[in-house]
Amino acid sequence: MKWLTDNLERFLIWVLSSGPLPRHVAFVMDGNRRYARQHQKRVFEGHSDGFMALRRVLRICMLLGVETVTVYAFSIENFKRSQEEVEALMSLAEDKLIELCEHGDLLDQYGVRLNVLGKRDLLPESVRAAAERAESLTRQNDKAMLNLCMPYTSREEMATALQSTVEEALASDVDLSSLSEKDVDKHLYTSQVGSPPVDILIRTSGVKRLSDFLLWQCCEDTQIQFTPTYWPDFGLRDMIPILLDYQRSMWSRQR
Ligand code: FPP
Q1: What SS3 state is found at 144?
Q2: Using CA positions, which residue lies closest to atom 12 of ligand 1?
Q3: What is the CB neighbour count within 10 angstroms for residue 123?
Q4: How many other CB atoms sit within 10 Å of the CB of residue 164?
Q5: Domain boundaries along the sequence of the chain
Q6: Nearest to 165 by CA among 131, 139, 192
Q7: What CATH code is assigned to 22-153+197-245?
Q8: CDD domains, per this entry (predicted)?
Q9: Cα of 32 to ligand 1 centre, how many Å?
């Protein structure tokens, strides 16, 4: 049975690869707690199954040849959740970040560089250390990139970018009135690691909001897709209609 599903998956990916594919796909991984409730699981198990979904989706993206995957792993707002849930998410991040980057694991296998983007000084020391270790383990990987946004909000990213832009200009005697959006853009977390423009942004769980994620980056060319599936259940079955829609719009633009 596994042989059959693996080969069916490879066949579907091969068919999709004959059309235009996105270079950069971003995900708002939403619905972990509702999934946990639906399956009579604990909240922590919902997040842990969410991590398994992240592995699954990342593998699909790598097989499709997507260059950059950016995920909303933890919003700055999520610190307002119960202490128990925040600790559970932090300990999940601490354990899984290193695991993901180890020799022979997913990121090594597909040559993926990991970047942790956001206001990192809000993370507990042990998670920050894990993030640094994971980044250094994958620093040489150059086939693709995984941006794990944590703890992140778009408005914090924009405020930080603006601050660095002004500081840099003042340090080099650049007239502030000459600064443009291009200068701010260069200082965004995603630009600093060399991410291409976001082609598709997918939010799971049926919620139709961006929740302060990649607001600057979702320019007019980004396709925003909402799907009802809870993140831990999300997979190739949900990606196919989204990718077909993307291919349809790329083809119609070429006409
Ligand atoms: C949103 O669902 C999800 C999160 C706040 C956490 C996302 C984290 C993961 C998928 C694990 C990622 C891996 C690492 C390395 C940390 P929700 O909790 O808001 O669920 P709800 O919308 O049903 O309430």
Answers
A1: strand
A2: 51
A3: 20
A4: 16
A5: 22-153+197-245
A6: 192
A7: 3.40.1180.10
A8: Cis_IPPS (cd00475)
A9: 5
